[in-house]
Amino acid sequence: MEKIKNLIRRMPIIGNLVILIFRAFKPPDINFPPYWFDKYLPNKDLTVVQIGSNDGFTFDPLYNFVKKNDQWKALFVEPVPYLFERLKKNYGSEARFKFENVAINQDGESQIFYSVKESAFEQIPNLPLHFDQIGSFYKENIIKLSKGVLDGYIDEQEVKCFTLNQLFVNNEIKDLALLHIDAEGYDWKILSQLNLANFNPTLILFEFINLKESEKKEAINFLKDHYYVISFRIDFLGINKEKIKKKDLQAIKRKGVLVSTI
């Protein structure tokens, strides 16, 4: 199994082929984000922003869609240097892609960021593949998720940071179809900076599994006037109320995955 995991890390094309084969035999499922990407994000000139991109491929819900929809523009944000290098390699040098080796925080000042040392994957047997995706401003989140396995392998480094607005201004983001946030407990603090008067993405996907209950409530309240929010296993997906199809809303209600209040 470890050999397969390492192969996927080194050769994303092969890993991607395995995923494509798996998806070919798996029917579309309303309970997973890719179902909604297919429905609401056509192959036309639109912009997606992903914050917390990791390597851009491993367990990433966007990779296949960004690669196949060649008219999309995409901005990827990842603060961990070795993951940032993999990210650029996995996506390549197409002009429609932009990359920022930064983290997003609330004041734009440099901040200490915690991540798993790259050497951990060579020196700790059977380390779960997703452990390089748990970088966070909160060291306790990494300790909790790893259950002590990573003792001595948690890296601490000061990283360059932008606010969400600085990120958008620096990269000339003027319109937005999808915002995806995966920030290991910092998701609400990033989402709360989105100016809904200026930006109204069709879809907003963000992780809630590491949020406090109060933050989940704040996030839902922040979105509820403009978005229908669906709850997945670890993520919330907001679908713009002005763009959702009536039959899709009915399907969401039948499935019981619609979140209004928590």
Q: What is the count of helical runs?
A: 11
Largest sheet features? 8 strands, mixed
Structural class computed from helices and strand pairing: alpha/beta
- Shape descriptor reads globular
Query: How many angstroms separate the termini?
Result: 39 Å
β-strand number: 12
* SSE series: HHHEHEHEEEHHEEHEHEHEEHE
- Enumerate the spans where pLDDT stays under 50 for 5 or more consecutive residues: none
- Quote the beta fraction: 15-25%
Overall mean pLDDT: 90
Work out the helicity level.
Answer: 25-40%
Q: Note the quaternary state here.
A: single chain
Rg estimate, integer Å: 18 Å
Enumerate the strands of the largest sheet in spatial order, edge to edge or round the barrel. 3-2-1-8-9-11-10-12
